[in-house]
Amino acid sequence: MTGAELSEMIALAQRLAAVDEPAVLSTLFSSDGSTYRRLGSMMVSGPATSIAGGVSGGCLEQYIARNGRELIRQQSAAVLSFGADPDGADDGKPVLGCGGSIEVLIERLTPDHLAFLRQLKCASEADAFTTAACVIDNPAGSPMSAHRLWLSDNPDNRGDPRLARLRQRSIAQERSLHGVLDSSRRALVHYIPPMTRLVIFGAGDDARPLCALARSLGWHVTVVDRRGRLATRWRFPEADQVLATDWTAATAAITFTPMTAVALMTHSLDDDTEILPLLAAKPMTYVGSLGPEHRRRWLLEVLENSTDSGAALVSRLRGPIGLDLGDRSATGIAVSIVSEILAELNGRSGLPLSQPGHEASIAQESQAGVPDV
């Protein structure tokens, strides 16, 4: 879920609470096979079409919102199951078109849930990963209950060792996981990854669609240029940070993390050769330079002959930047740059999903069954 989605969910929950309108919190709790959304995706819904967030590609939301309101009148928590077999579906229940099956936890939204959503949004904007758990308890003959808690490595906050093991698996795989704790309890561990940061050096017109596209993904975007007439809030309204200063002062003012991507779009060899050594000691996951291959070779020659810190970037600098999508418009280039960064962040090749061999990597992301922990 993006920060924008979480903001919409929080705003809707607040509006419904203000008019004392019952609201439903839905959570994609478990899955088997291919699904559109990732585990832990959430949705807030009220009457009619009052929906924010989502747990599918759009095929389940209205059904869940409508039936969820009926369920919460009778109990505080329940689970709705959806599959791909049209013959096995209940009358009127939607069928998943992606071939998998999922379970959606339905809860009567409370002030505690609203506080959890606010914390989740804060966690999504942090530079370190966070984990939280949603545990459902469904003992025989008793109503289902659900509760949420934040997890950490603090020994005083580890609690159930089985939940701790599920958390460690989630951290190792860098994704949310579902597992069985005991005969009546199951858990979903939310893995909230560190925030992705994009730093764009150069505030020309071609940087504007890149800034807007990256921000639409929920990334923190910084735009910097030594030319104050270009690096302005008016030109980059979506940016989180706009700096109009020299390159040395700019790199000192920017936060760099292992989830930071850097795009050099200065259109100036002199500027790029000044910037790159300043980046050598910074933590980054990606650095690329706009321009053809021979331009990258010129930059590498300068770096190799400059300082040891500059030489450290030689093997990391990408150029031409982006994937080969064939569109040379500013927006098309922005799409290709973001695509390459996404592939790098997710450890993917950037090749078409239809090519042989991709099925295995997709299957690895699917939740196969409900493993014990």
Could you walk me through the main structural features you see in this protein, from its secondary elements to its overall organization?
- There is one protein chain.
- With 373 residues, this protein is α/β, with parallel strands linked by helices.
- It folds into 2 domains: 3-192, no CATH class; 197-345, Rossmann fold, CATH 3.40.50.
- The chain has helices at residues 3-18, 61-74, 111-124, 161-173, 207-216, 247-253, 269-279, 293-305, 308-311, 330-345, 358-365, and strands at residues 24-32, 42-45, 51-53, 77-82, 101-108, 130-137, 145-151, 177-180, 185-192, 197-201, 220-225, 241-244, 260-264, 286-289, 317-318.
- A 6-stranded parallel β-sheet has the order 12-11-10-13-14-15, covered by helices on one side.
- Helix 1 packs antiparallel against helix 3.
- The radius of gyration is 23 Å and the shape is elongated.
Short description:
The protein is α/β, with parallel strands linked by helices and about 375 residues long. Helices cover about 35% and strands about 20% of the residues. The strands form three sheets. A six-stranded parallel β-sheet has the order 12-11-10-13-14-15, covered by helices on one side. A five-stranded antiparallel β-sheet has the order 3-2-1-5-4, with helices on both faces. A four-stranded antiparallel β-sheet has the order 7-6-9-8, sandwiched between helices.
